[in-house]
Amino acid sequence: MEAQTSSGKEEERVWLESLLNKFARDNSVASILEFNLKQAVPEGVNYASIINRAKLTVILHNGQESKLSVIMKKAHEDKEKLETLSAIPIFKSEIKVYNEILRKFETLMNEYEDYNEKLWCNLIGYQNYDLIVLEDLKLTNYVIADRKKRLDLNHSKLVLHSLGRLHALGYILIQKGLLSKEDLPPFYCDISFIVMDRLYKCGLITLSKVIEKYWTPEWKEIGKRLSKEHEVVIEKHKRLFQPQENDFITMCHGDCWTCNMMFKYSPFEENYPISLKFLDFQTTHINVYIFDVLYFLFVSVQPEVRRSNFDQLLSVYQKSLQTALANYGFEDRTPSLKNVQSEAVRAEYYGLTCSLVLSPIGAAQQAGDFKIEYLND
């Protein structure tokens, strides 16, 4: 009787395997009939690459005609833009993240039966090292929020909850020896003189001049203080990025702002986000978690929301990190809320400079107010 049962199960296994293979093949693309390429995002949403949407009419292997859409992300060909980005291997890094590291995340989630939704889109393929083809999240109702308005409390909580999950996965890979600091380039604030000198340093110089010349008299003293700060901003950043004892090191996104994430919304409540996907892993690196957290809070969150709910938002992040780590057996490694708050205080200068220099770029009203090649001037 047992032999018959085993034989029956084996027959079912073979039949199911054949069925799944047929299903996958029937629904795969046999040929492309039409191919139309259009710009996927307006100027001011993405600075470091060209984002196009390819709309396709295809024939599937089952003979059915179907409409598809994919995102094609290309490296800039403009010499001025390439000069600015020359110190940061953004496409090589992003391909490695999608093709290797995020696949390891998925393997880890599968192994531990973590059925939470993935925090990234699917990689379809790539061409070394100037083209990446990705799933078009617009087809599943994901959209980019309005960078000019910045994010409200509900959006901010979802981002920090998601960031806690992402950081947990990165930390676990590091602890398992499946990811190391050498696998990714250092943070651009560590290695790119152009970015630090012309974005942060020159940004503070420009801001101080604008304040002194155009703002009301009570701001003049602030302008003078900022004019002196540009002399030390690079050195202060270098000190901040030096490893500290007992740091919680993970894979940081590196550019966690409004236009590098897409939201899906509730069908029952207006503007209520229910799901998130991170985009643009071009400056992803290994670092202390707090820099991702502060970058997001000071660049993309509405200032009044951040100021009124700062501790609550840190708590959302910490609880998500703890829950995710607990699911993988690493709960005892979670930084306490007190630790997270202490780290936020330690690195608050980074948040300040992000707020002064990057936040105005992120919320610029005109698309051409900032272009990556401006850093060459």
Report on the structure:
With 377 residues, the chain is an alpha+beta fold. The protein folds into two domains: 60 residues, no CATH class; 298 residues, Alpha-Beta Complex (Aminoglycoside 3'-phosphotransferase, Chain: A, domain 2). It is built from twelve helices and nine strands. The longest helix is centred in the first third of the chain and has 25 residues.
What distinguishing features does this structure have?
single chain, 377 residues, alpha+beta, Aminoglycoside 3'-phosphotransferase, Chain: A, domain 2, 2 domains, five-stranded antiparallel beta sheet, two-stranded antiparallel sheet, 12 helices, globular
Summarize the structure.
The chain is an alpha+beta fold.
Write the topology of this structure.
Elements (H helix, E strand, L loop, with lengths): L1 H25 L2 E11 L10 E11 L4 E10 L4 H7 L4 H22 L11 E5 L3 E5 L17 H23 L12 H4 L1 H22 L5 H10 L3 H8 L8 E4 L8 E5 L7 E6 L6 E4 L1 H10 L3 H25 L9 H10 L1 H15 L15
Antiparallel strand pairs: 1-2, 2-3, 3-5, 4-5, 6-9, 7-8
Helix pairs in contact: 4-10, 6-7, 6-12, 9-12
Number of strands: 9
Low-confidence spans: none
| Fraction of helical residues | 40-55%
Radius of gyration: 23 Å
Number of domains: 2
* Average pLDDT level: 89
**Any idea what the shape is?**
globular
Fraction of residues in β-strands: 15-25%
- According to CATH, what is the topology of the largest domain? Aminoglycoside 3'-phosphotransferase, Chain: A, domain 2
CATH domain class of the largest domain: Alpha Beta
CATH architectural designation of the largest domain:
Alpha-Beta Complex
Q: What structural category arises from helix and sheet content?
A: alpha+beta
Main beta-sheet strand count, sense and barrel state: 5 strands, antiparallel
Give the terminus-to-terminus CA distance.
Answer: 81 Å
Number of helices: 12
Domain CHK kinase-like: 132-327
GO molecular function, one term: kinase activity
Protein name: Putative ecdysteroid kinase
Organism: Rhodnius neglectus
